[in-house]
Amino acid sequence: MRPLTEEETRVMFEKIAKYIGENLQLLVDRPDGTYCFRLHNDRVYYVSEKILKLAANISGDKLVSLGTCFGKFTKTHKFRLHITALDYLAPYAKYKVWIKPGAEQSFLYGNHVLKSGLGRITENTCQYQGVVVYSMADVPLKPEESFSYEEKTNLASIPLTAYRSSSQTF
Amino acid sequence: MEGQNVEELLAKAERDEAEKLQRITVHKELELEFDLGNLLASDRNPPTGLRRAGPSPEAELQALARDNTQLLINQLWQLPTERVEEALVARLPEPTTRLPREKPVPRPRPLTRWQQFARLKGIRPKKKTNLVWDEVSGQWRRRWGYQRARDDTKEWLIEVPGGADPLEDQFAKRIQAKKERVAKNELNRLRNLARAHKMQLPSTGGMHPTGHQSKEELGRAMQVAKVSTASVGRFQERLPKEKAPRGSGKKRKFQPLFGDFAAEKKSQLELLRVMNSKKPQLDVTRATNKQMREEDQEEAAKRRKMSQKGKRKGGRQGAGGQRKGGPPSQGGKRKGGLGGKVNSGPPRLGGKRKGGQHQGGKRRK
Q: Which stretches are tagged as biased composition: Basic and acidic residues (chain B) (predicted)?
């Protein structure tokens, strides 16, 4: 377990900032406690100082997880965000997409969201913007990359809105 | 009746006493030899009783053992006793029997390099006194070792020698020289030990060519040889298909786990600020570069068309050349004439461009 290096922090912040923008500093600097990012076995954990102090007493090979896993660094040092980060990203999301109940199930099982399945979307969402997908009951489902709203009106054939990345994590 | 009982009791007591005494005293023809230091009693009496016993002499053996042990303990009881932490302890005398060696005699060690040399030259060790009179401290000090008489690292005043650099630290120089001597001594000691036990020093293990070395040993020797140049291997070429050795970089150092949380937070916020502030600038740069590239392409296409038609485009080409040399620094690099032209150019360039910002954007890029 170790803190992140400058390079790793930058890569991770760039990824997270795609979804929550400058609200990221609210994650870094919290009024209700000192939270920090720690790297363990290539995974980044967001953990409070208190829990970190307890976790330091466990030997590295026996420690499975601590705090919340935000994601992991791949072998080529790219950062992949995990679904476990959703609880922290959803409240600060800048661009949100709400999908209809019918499309929700299909989306969760890995399909793209068509224009017909779109309920609401925040305005000025650009193309390939990172958004957080919500169900109509305001339950955050997943952060995703999206096509833009303006582009959608130009597309004649297959109007895709939320483009689901091919792998399971995003 | 009672009197009889008492008499009987007394008689019984007497008989018991006699029996005890009998048990304690043992009659032997020949006295035993005792080595109380080793708790040893040697019985030299001929074992006639055992011979007479026949095939199963257990009872006789047991009686013999009991008798001899009794005699030994009688002897022990006669030793001077003392009290050690609420226990009465007998102090054993020095053992008189010499026990044989447990392990075989050690083989003679091979001579060290100095010993070989001394033997060759016929140098004998001169007897020197251990203590030397030290004037400075006014006492007898060792010739060598802890708090020795003449320790040059402990001097408080060193004159700078004639040919030396005046900014050199003479004290540090002496300490460094001493460290080097100590290290050299240690190395020689280890080498002597290795020679004595017919082993190799781990630092040079496998570096001496034997002809029967494994691939890993050869690889290691090759890497060491590569680094053993004056430039520490920086200018050593590799073979065409040779791969860089794994794990030869510097070990990375990370921040401690519980570093200063406030400092960590501050650096992360700073990083975020820089990240956020950079975003719009880059966009402008990219947009302007894109625009300029498009304009360049248009110009190139026009020029090609014009050059096909005729040679009326000196001015145009000059303008095109000027545009490419836009930033003054780059203009300086090219021929001097162009630099002058750049200075006279701006109003015309300003007309073509959409303002000074773009130039600024390109410069930033």
A: 235-245
- Continuous segment of H or E residues that includes residue B193: helix B170-196
pLDDT per residue as tens digits for the range A64-122? 999 999 999 999 999 999 999 998 989 998 888 899 998 888 888 988 888 888 888 88
Instruction: Compute φ and ψ for B17, nearest 5 degrees.
Output: -60, -45
ipTM of the complex, rounded to two decimals: 0.78
Which residues in chain B have their CB less than 8 angstroms from residue A53's CB? Answer: 258
User: Are B257 and A9 an interchain contact pair (Cβ–Cβ within 8 Å)?
Assistant: no
Tokens standing for residue A165: 């990345």
Smallest CA–CA distance, residue B222 to chain A, in Å, is 30
- In Å, how far is A120's CA from the nearest CA of chain B? 28
Distance CA B116, CA B125 (A): 13
Write phi, then psi, for A158 (nearest 5 degrees).
Answer: -100, 100
Largest CA-CA distance found in chain A, in angstroms, rounded: 59
CA-CA distance, A114 to A116, in Å (whole number)?
5
Q: For residue A94, what are the β-bridge partners?
A: none
**pLDDT tens-digit readout, B128-140:** 888 999 988 899 9
Angle CA B292–B294–B299, to nearest 5: 90
CB atoms within 10 A of CB A31: 5
Q: Measured on CA atoms in the order B138, B140, B143, B145, is the torsion positive or negative? A: negative
Q: Report yes or no: B10 and B2 within 8 Å, Cβ to Cβ.
A: no
For the ranges B77-91, B122-136, B266-280, B348-362, the lowest mean pLDDT is seen at B348-362
B358 pLDDT band (50/70/90 cuts)?
very low
